[in-house]
Structure formats: structure tokens, C-alpha cells
Amino acid sequence: MVKIMARISNPVLFSKYFTIDPAKLEAAGLIDPFLNVDTQLFIDPVLLAKSANQVISTKAIKEFRTHFSNFVRLLAISKREGDAAWKAAWKLLDLQEPPENGLGYGGSGTSGNSRPDRIRTAMMRTAQEIIDLGTSDPEMISLMGFFEEEVGPDTISDFTTRVITPQLAKITTDFCTAYGVPVREIPEGGGMKLPVYTTPDGKEKFILLVPRDIVRDLPVANDWSDIEKAANENKKIRDRINAMLSKIAKPTVADRKAALKRAALESPDTFESFLEAVKENTSSYDPSLDALAYYKIKNILSGDSSALKSRQTYNVDEGPEALRDFVLAAVAMFQHHVEKGNLWEELWIGNEPKKERAAQLIFYALADCFCKANNVDISPEANMGGGPIDFKFSKGYRSRVLVEMKRSTGTVVHGYKKQLEIYKDAAQTDFGIFVIMDFGGLRSKLSKIKWLREKRLESGEPASEIIVINARKKASASKRT
After folding, report:
1. Which residues contact 273 (CB under 8 A, 6 or more apart)?
2. Residue after which a domain boundary falls, among 218, 233, 262
3. How far apart are CA 260 and CA 144, in angstroms?
4. At which of 182, 201, 218 does a domain end?
5. 3-state secondary structure 338-363
6. Measured between alpha carbons, how far is 143 from 330 in angstroms, rounded to an integer?
7. What angle do CA 365, 441, 225 make, to 5 degrees?
8. Of 166, 195, 241, 457, which is the most exposed, with the fewest CB atoms less than 10 Å away?
9. Exposed, middle or buried: residue 63 (CB in 10 Å: 0-12, 13-18, 19+)?
10. What phi, psi does 130 have (nearest 5°)?
11. Has residue 349 been placed in a domain?
12. What are phi and psi of 31, to 5 degrees?
């Protein structure tokens, strides 16, 4: 059996593990989470008051506002960093990742991680600036991702989850009781009872279910689009940001956040209007758009994988070349479904390609089924010292094959010339496969990397395979026949 040494392995859905009809979770408005892989969605506190779930829109939002009203009150009376009030506020801002809800970034499991103290300090300093303006709205804490470079939506989701865990636990327990899912009392959990997932190595993890309408998609990197959307609602803020950024040739996300922070914190009225604009324009993850292909991935993983079984057998014990042939077959299978089937539809939202992550995760879901049907393990996102590669396949110590996937509109040449080679060096392998998802805009990039490949081969150096998958929008199947 091939062992692919990386961070995610054999994803298990809540519905499949507890033999629950996924439609029951759908009807209850709940996410059907992966129990051993973090789902890249996050809880946005701005959505709590809008939720159709009464436990969330009444009790959870009240708990959130009470908790952070206390946080604001303590910061307001703090005279200096480190005094008693500051320390008390510090305790209320818990940034440790909660393992129970399976949201956010993660690896081989969903165990929580802590964050550096400097992030919490930066958030508290910004909150104190806002308080000094004369604003005491506890929901100010929701905006920290707009202002602070190291504060992402996953951080905000984590501290929100910790505050509203009792309400999420009630929702989870009520659902499990209704459908016969066993629950167990959490040690030191104040009587809360949750279902338990037992990992293959015997570890036990409690599970929280989360309403669908309080989550948003979690970007791979901080995205300016959300910031721009909120800022554009206020002409004064928009004009000030544009003026500040006009002096910078190529502003980074950090530059943009700094500009937004200066503009939004100019006065109490400006800040309040920005906060209201964020609240008004924030919406939950849309299943019909499925920007991360989350629902598509669930359908693939919960379906029948027999159709993905290859007629050809692969003796991967023969060495790296045999393993490479197997990986190439997995990529070819994905390519077939995108180019000859309708899978390309899952890679677009209207006239815009979905995030790069969507194609990567759909490939993983298909390849996972392909590998299961052929008695092979797969996991993505290996980190081998040179950075995170999309996929790493390995058999023992000497057989390793890396797969890197890029959109045609992205940094294709750099990805092939630098990134993949660095990863190969770190992994001590000569075998790499560079997959380009062609959404258009490839232009001369392909000829450049093909030239690089030929030069390497001519000089006797190993060169990664290049595979281009046509992911452009196509006519319907009926019109193509």
C-alpha cells in the first residue's frame, strides 16, 4: 500500500460515521462536518443575529455581546498594559483554536492550536484605540481581521466559538437526541453532552455541530475583496484609503489594512458607519455558489467510488517510476471528469473561476476515491521544510512524487521554476507533476515553462511533468454532442 505522508487522510463525514441521512442535517440547517479534517469555513460573529436558528439569534448573540461588553468595559478602565483590568480583558479574549467544531485551517486532525501572544496584544491595542474614540459596541471585535495583518477569519471564528460553545452544544445535543446519535458528558464541561468520534488510533474527540447560516468560506490568504466591499459603502473612508494607497506602487494586503484602519478610526461616526456597513453586507456561505466546492466534495466522498477504480494495476513497490505512473493516472482521471464531463461547472461562479483551493480539494476528493478503490492512501498539503506542497505521494523512503496545482491566471512560471523545485529538493525526490488549471489567460506562460523543462532535460537534469487541464467554461453536454 502506498503511504502518502502528509497532513490529511481518509476524511470522514459526521453523517457517514454516525449513519445519519445527510438530508437530516440539511433540514436542520447544520453543516455536515468532516470529523478528522478541518472544513475551511469559519463562524462570523456578524452573522449571529441574522441566523434562522433561534438558539443562535437570541441566546448566542446575547452571550457574545455580554462577553465582549465585559471585555470592552475592562479595557476602558485599564490605565496601562499589564494592570489588573488589562489582564482580566486578556483572559476574555481566548484565541486558542477549539477542536470541536472542525472549522478553519487544520491538518491530520482537528485538535486546537494556540496563537502567539503578540496577536492578542495587537487586537487589544486596536480595541483600546476604538474605545478611546468613544465607541463601546462589543461587536467591534468582529472587525479585527480588517485591521490587523495577523488576524484572519479563522482567529475570529475561534474566539467566537469559545464564547458561544454552550449554545452550539445545545443545538448539537438536541439534534443527536432526535436522531439517535449517542452523546457523552464532557469532562469539566458544565453538564454539556456531545457526540464522540473515535480516531483509528483510538483517540476520542467531541464534536460540535454548527448552523450553516453563521459560516463563511475561509480564504487561503487574507483577501482584499471583503475589505474593499465594506470600505466602498462609505465614501469618506473609500476616498481616504485611495489617497493613502495612491502613494504606494503595489500596495500589499498589510498596506491596505493599515490604510483602512487609519481611515475607519478617524472619528466615532466614521467607525460606527463602517461597523454598520460590515454588518449589513456580510452574508453566509452560499451552497448554490459553493465557492470552495465544499458540497461537491461531500457528494464525491459520500458516493460510490467503484466507478473510479482503474482497470490497470500498479505495482508501486517497483520504485518511484511506478508510483509516478499511478499518480499520473489519478491526475488523468481528474482531467477526464473536468474536460469530458461536467466537473468544470463546479470550478466556476458565474463568469469567475472559483478559488484555486476549490480545484485542489475536488482533485483530492476524486483522487481519494480513486486511491481507496485501488488500495492506496492519499493526503494533501505536505510541508517538507521548503514550504507546503499541494500533494505528496510516497512509498517508503526513496519513492516520492509531488503534485503542485496552479491556476492559469496565477504565478505559473514561478511555481514551476522555483516552488516545485524547492519542494522536490526538500523532499529529496526527482519526480514532480505540475498541473495547470486553464481558466484562460495562460498566454506565454506555458511556452516558458515548457522551455524550462526542455532545457533541464537537455542538460541531464530531472524535469517535472507538465499537465494542462482545460477548465474553461463549456457548452452543455447536449450541445457538445
Report:
1. 233, 234, 237
2. 218
3. 11
4. 218
5. HHCCCHHHHHEECCEECCHHHHHHHH
6. 42
7. 70
8. 457
9. middle
10. -65, -40
11. yes
12. -70, 135
